[in-house]
Every structure is written in C-alpha cells, then in structure tokens.
Amino acid sequence: MKHFQIIIVILCLLSVQSIYGQLPTVSPKMEIETETGKEIVTEYSGSAPIKANFTANPENLGTYTAFYEWRLYEDGKSAEPFLIRHDADMTYTFNQAKTIYISLTAYFVHNTDTVEYAMTTPFSVTAYESSMNVPNTFTPNGDGSNELFKVKDGHRSIVKFHGYIFNRWGKKLFEWTDINSGWDGKYSGNDVADGVYFCYIEATGADGRKFKIKKAINLIRKYIKD
Predict the structure, then answer these.
(1) What are phi and psi of 56, to 5 degrees?
(2) How is residue 10 annotated by DSSP?
(3) Which tens digits make up the pLDDT trace of 55-93?
(4) Nearest to residue 25, comparing CAs of 122, 115, 120?
C-alpha cells in the first residue's frame, strides 16, 4: 500500500511538472558586509554589529505565486522565532552577542497546486562577546608606528563608543566617537608637549556590557626603538 501511495505522489509531481514546466524553487543566500567587502557564506562569526543581506533567489516561477517566510531564532527555539519576515529579500543587523539561526520556507501556489521549499540547514550568525583594551603609551613622532592613541586592535562587538583626552589641569584636548580612530597628540593643530595625559572612555558592548576606563597615558615623541 505504501509503495502504491509513493507511486501516486511521484506521478502527481511529474504531471504538474509536465504541465507547468520545471517546478519552482529557491536558492537562498546570506551575504555578510565586512570591512574588506561582502562575503557569501552559510555561517559567520564576528564582531557586532554584523550586517547581513538575505535573498531567496526564486527560480522557475512560471505562473506560480511565491510566498516567503524568513524566521530568525535562537538555539533550540526554532518554533519560537523572535522575528518573521515575508519578503523575498531582507536585511538584518545583528547587535547582540549570541548565535542566531536564519531559515527560509517558501510556498509556490498555482490554482490548487502548492509546492513547498524548506531549508534543511539554516544559516547562522554569531556575534562575539564585547572586549576592549587601551594602551598606556603612544609615540606620535612621525615614524609610522604607534602614531595614535586609540583602542588596541582586536576589540570586539563595541556598539557605542566615546573617548576624551584631558591634560593634567583638566582641560579637554580631544574627543572621538569612532573606536577605530584616536588622538594624534595635537591640540588646535599643534603638537602638545611630551608627558602624562589622561583619557576617559565610555563604551557599550553588544552584550550590554558597560566600559568606563579612566587612566593616565604617556605621550613620548623621543622614543627610540632598540
């Protein structure tokens, strides 16, 4: 009996395909926007915010009408997505430090015929926990090394940032909000003297962690490498 039912299903599919041509389907893709360009991947791990573009890429639609359902959910919660989108393409920015799974189900309808497509393996995006470190010294002497006082490379998932530089009398010399930028040791276009200055940094990580850093920093232009 089971073999008979399977044969009927196959014959029905072949009948639909012979009438309408190839059956419609999709080729979903995930494209991540990185600092070096765009990457098409099935899984990705990196520092938040992570911007991703999702496309269904339907094929062989013919006279079928397509309906899409993108589902974003946490591990073990595929039945409880926190976001559902019904467009063929969508963009989403991942700001929280966790792993999110993304799946697509597509339905193609023509009269009483319905063809369903469901991803067997979802995409996944993991945003790292936040981390940030600040140096004690910088040497803006024009040798191309350590020219800026800035957060050390390798910081992760910082979504808000504000830094300030003060002299020993509390006068503000510089402030910046781009974590990848920093102070070049100048005030009003002129080099400040070598010595001790003070930085104050406030930042927020994608995981909600708050950073408040107060420390003395050394500006040394006459530094000589060994």
Answers:
(1) -80, -35
(2) H
(3) 999 999 999 999 999 999 999 998 999 999 999 999 999
(4) 115
Amino acid at 76: G
Residue 25's identity, in one-letter code, is T
- In this structure, what token pair is assigned to residue 176? 């910046």
Closest by Cα among 210, 151, 161 to 183: 151
Q: Are 161 and 180 in contact (CB under 8 A)?
A: no
Task: Print the SS3 string covering 39-71.
Answer: EEECEEEECCCEEEEEECCEECCCCCEEEEEEE
For tokens 């200055």, the residue is 197
Residue type, 94: F
Q: Which residue has the tokens 């600040």?
A: 134
Count of Cβ atoms closer than 10 Å to residue 167 Cβ: 15
31 vs 50: CA distance, rounded Å: 11
DSSP string for residues in 75-143: TT-TTS-SEEE-SSEEEEEE-SSSEEEEEEEEEEEETTEEEEEE-SS-EEEEEPPPB----SEE--SSS
CB-hemisphere CA count at 13 Å for 168?
Answer: 8
pLDDT digits (tens, 9 = 90+) for 181-217: 999 999 999 999 999 999 999 999 988 899 999 999 9
Give the whole-angstrom CA distance, residue 213 versus residue 223. Answer: 25
What the chain holds in terms of domains, given with CATH numbers, is 25-127 (2.60.40), 137-219 (2.60.40)
pTM of the model: 0.69
